[in-house]
Request: fold
Amino acid sequence: MTIREIQDEIVDEFSMFDDWMQRYEYIIELGKSLPLIDEHYKTEDNIIKGCQSKVWVHAEQQGDKVVFTADSDAILTKGIIAILIRVFSNQKASDILDANTDFIDEIGLKEHLSPTRANGLVSMIKKLKMYALAFKAKSE
Amino acid sequence: MLDIQKIRADFPILSQKVNGKPLVYFDNGATSQKPQVVIDAIARYYQEINANIHRGVHTLSQLATDAYEASRHTIQHHINAKNAYEVIFTSGTTHGINAVANGFAALLKAGDEVLVSALEHHSNIVPWQMLCERTGAVLKVIPMNDKGELIQAEYDKLLSPKTKIVTVNHISNALGTINPVKEMIAKAHQVGAAVLIDGAQATPHLKPDVQDLDCDFYVFSGHKICGPTGIGILYGKETWLRKLPPYQGGGEMIATVTFEKTTYADLPHKFEAGTPNIAGGIVLGTAVDYLNEVGFDNIAKYEHELLEYATQKLLEIEGLQIFGTAEAKTSVISFNINGIHPYDIGTIIDKLGIAVRTGHHCAQPIMDYFNIPGTIRASFAFYNTKEEIDVMVEAIKKAKMMLS
Reply:
């Protein structure tokens, strides 16, 4: 699936919920499905700054795709990062870089999360794109 | 007895809804809400007497100056300072601490010691670290026990003729511990050290008597005591304020200026460079008057009731642990629930209209001591109610169910 197709799918899933509680419960569920980062990649370098909770992300190249794994010590944050990884993992670096992230507004995440966490979300996307940029530069 | 419903009616923000739920504001440790008299006083200043102070001969300037200086007197009486010129307007607690720490750079030499406590806010750590870097003085830390109380026996051992200044908070922002500052000040004076008391968390709950405490400096913020942001107080004993060099240069703090030599203005203006926060200064007096009308004895008694009620109710939640269990404690409860990140709880109960603080509360060394990433902190003010505590407890139970 393309990034856009996955995003549409997520928007679709979230449109089924009537209230914030159902959204949050779903985010918590998603957190449990997060492809977990290998313990030895939980280094200072892999921590995302700007989150109140700790988030680690690791990226590696598999063929022409970038694959992400991650973890967080907070379950809601884990859910958010799981959504981002579902969108961006297993995609080409150039597609990751080109992707827009409007779907976050569409699923009501940005407005429904507290401002500091919203900043964390921005930092997370930035970090994922930074990895993609690094891999793209390497392959050119 | 406080008429809480009447008091709540003084605070327009409290009747607001947040996320569709009635606001339960338990983040008073971060900043207090403002009563209508304070909000009105800000508007009245700009509507009626706005002018620069201490320099114009015109009527408005005189009115603004009078109001500003009247507020200085209000605060002088509130904290029982000997002289009004010992009361310096600052932008807040952080500014006050930096002004003193900066002044001490001229007085310290390599090998001198600065004592801070393990309970301090970053604002009462970093300026002293910077001072030590500049002067070669050594920063020493008064340790705390598992209850979050400073260990007095260790403090005694740390004090020596090398100690030049001791800086400690009156009440801990992260844990609510009330420190025995009067005794600590007396001990410091025995070795000839000066003492700064960070009163940012104490002044919302009690009326400090700086002469009785015998502290050399006492600093606090306006916004935590129902006043506006960007205004605070540095109290200093006259002898110390004369000894310390000014913190900032500029207008207002000078007597004469030539390119060869500038002489400084007398106290308090020596420490008040530039056009100050005039509205803030004036309205801080209004806020202090308001609090005194409510009465600090009433506030202390009622807040203690809230603390006891909330402590008991929270401890009924399985797996909930309170950090900071000092014998002497103000209405602050820092807690976690086993296996759940404080941030997750904070985010979910926010959706239920409850404002608490989560994180390290600008006191990372305390979190390191307990080996936790942070806590959830509920801090109560005299306008909060037991019913609100019930709402919070139910919200936490709901969050806990969602998260575990």
